[in-house]
Structures are given as C-alpha cells and as structure tokens.
Amino acid sequence: MIKIAIQKSGRLFDESIKLLKECGLSIDNGKGQLKAQVRNFPAEILYLRNSDIPFYVEQGIADLAIIGQNVVAEKEVQIEELLTLGFSKCRLSIATPRNTSYHSITDLQGKRIATSYPATLKQYLEKNKVDAAIHLINGSVEIAPSIGLADAICDLVSSGSTLFKNNLIENEVIFKSQAALYGNKDALDKKKTDVEQLVFRMSSVIRARQYKYILFNIPNKSIDAASAILPGLKSPTIVPLIEDDWSSLHSVIKNDDTWDIIDQLKQVGAQGILISDMSKIVV
Ligand code: PRT
Hints:
single chain; D-Maltodextrin-Binding Protein, domain 2; Alpha-Beta Plaits; 3 domains; 6-stranded mixed beta sheet; 9 helices; binds phosphoribosyl ATP
C-alpha cells in the first residue's frame, strides 16, 4: 500500500486529482476528507497542506507526493524527485517598485526584502555575496514595499499580473518551478513495485499531454516530403487509401509544433488533416 500526499485545497489540487484519475486511480475528490482509499490500486491518498507535505514525505508518513519544486527547495528536505509533471509552472523572483532604479542584485545590498521563501532567497543572496535583511511574511508579500515594510519582494510569479497591479518590476528569477512527483527514499526501495507501476502510468499520461496525434491524406509522390516534416516518436505509419496513388499518414507531433507542421504539410499537398489529443503514450 503506498500513501500519496496531495494538496488538500489550493492551486495544485485540481490538477493532482485529474492526473491520478487519468492514471486509472479511482478516488473521491477529498472534500471534507483527510485521507481516502483508492478503490482499484494499493494506495491511499492523504489530503494535506502543501507546505507540510515535504516533511511528511521526508519522515515517511507519505511515500509519494505531488508538490511544487519551489516548496521542496524552500524546506530543504531530503526527498527524491521522480517526475516533473508540467503543471503549476511558476518562478520565484525578486521584484522592486517601478519607481526605483535597479541594475543588478548588488543594488539590494543593505536593503530589506519581504518573502515567504526565506531559505531560497538567503541561498541566492549568499551566492551573489549580497547582505540584505530578509523579512518573513506569509501572505500578500506584494504589498510590503507600498506600506513601507520592505524595499523589494521575493515571491512566486506566474502571469506577472500581481506584480503589475502592485507597481512592481520583476528583476531576478531566482528559481523556476513546476509540480513534480516526489518520493521518500526508503519507500522507493520497500514499495518498489507499486511505486514503479504508478510512475510508469504517470509518465505515460504526462508524455501524452506533450504530443498530439496527427493523420492526413497525401499523394504517394509526396510521402517522402511529408515524412521529412514529421519528427514523431518513430517514422510515420503509412496506410494506402482505396483511391489510387493516395495514402493516409499517421504520426505523433509535439504540441508546440502543431501549427508549423500543419502549414508545412499543406504546402506538400496534405489534405484532410486531423489532429487529436491522446490520453496515454507508452514507449
Ligand atoms: O495552504 P497550503 O500550504 O496548502 O497552500 P499554499 O498557500 O502554499 O499554496 P497555493 O495553493 O497558493 O500554491 C500551491 C503551489 O502552486 C505553489 O507552491 C506553487 O508551486 C504553485 N504556484 C504556481 C503558485 C503560483 N503559480 C502563483 N502564482 N503559487 C502561488 N502563486 C501566487 C503568488 O504567490 C502571487 O501571490 O500567485 C500570485 C502571482 O500570480 P500572477 O499570476 O499574478 O503572477
């Protein structure tokens, strides 16, 4: 039985539940629960506060967890990162008021910086040999400069709109983060079979999210040109059509390349181009 910790409520909750369900785990959504049994896999879900999860994994109370890399770095725990999950992407950045000048990190020498990430910030300042006062604040960090509490802030940024609304400029990205699957070192050994099975399922789901399935019709004389455009997992599958001298090509392409590839395929004569999502890719 593996114990998997996820955030009880907050930014990571929906994506974590969705991912576990796409891995075939039949679970309740955790509303009003602290733990729930998975009905069709030897696992139990623990619904916990994001900031507490790294310690629970380190202590072995949870075997696996889905949390942001930023929290793990901040808590300085000894746990294993097994897989990056591609959601909850953000960065921990230093920002200063729009009306102050900023050229480099050394401008913060002797200044006050408000943050909920004191350990990560301290490490960055030490690495850059900057001596600044770190003020720990547990929420609404972005208002600290405007109320005279700090000269700069160090906080998570995703769209940048919170900084913009508070007249702050992002100057230094000190850590890039996304959600990841972490594991307790002993559990990875003792519960190897179940852990490996879940990691295998998760990587198949995560890989599928990065790709699209493409199929189209192409005159046979253009098959080589079309194949050269497709950087799929392997070479494309070619199926002859009933219509003479035409074939259907099937392949897998990266999400980010989709529109470029469509444009190029049209130029070599592709017709009836279909693009679809996939739920799993097993390699
Ligand atoms: O209470 P608990 O301990 O469970 O949760 P929490 O308060 O620590 O977490 P929560 O739900 O706020 O965030 C959980 C995780 O989501 C974080 O640890 C990050 O890994 C990730 N994440 C991704 C973010 C953001 N993006 C994010 N933008 N966490 C917080 N923010 C905040 C940021 O602090 C700032 O206030 O959003 C604001 C900035 O957003 P933009 O879009 O305006 O730039």
